[in-house]
Design brief:
5-stranded antiparallel sheet
Length: 184
Amino acid sequence: MARFKEKYNTEIVPKLVEELGRQNRHSLPKIEKIVVSMGVGAAIQDQKVLDEALGYLMQITGQKPSVRRSRKSIAQFKLREGMRIGGAVTLRKQRMYEFLDRLITLVLPRVRDFRGVNPNAFDGRGNYSLGLSEQVVFPEINADKVKNIQGMNIAIVTSAENDDEARLLLKEFGMPFKDPSKKR
């Protein structure tokens, strides 16, 4: 069993029962999936850049990414409908918990000038989104072999009914939220 799944079952669920005042375990918020995506704008000129980015995405997540294609043509960007422009991976169950563990314990502390993640990046329905500006913060990636620095978006989808419940859930997992009282 993944370390974070075990932590959820043994430590986080009792704290959520106490905090939210619900006895039914199924009504408590939980993480349903994590979506990791990369949009590669440079792929319009060179498809090799996209292939490289998809390879890194596969190394990071441990799962083959699905290729995303453009929906419509935009002449100013030299973009045609159906061109390959990005990739995404949806992680669930075991891989999801392992990825979240690596993200919180290894990756976020390696981000340059890291002061915490934005506590207000929730969408109103309990889902959290965060962006990383480079893929080399992941320990799986050899920084010396990277030709193109590529950012990525990470969306953590929860079953929480509102943002406060989701914030509480992620805080219990150890997500390093920025302290709103401290200014730069």
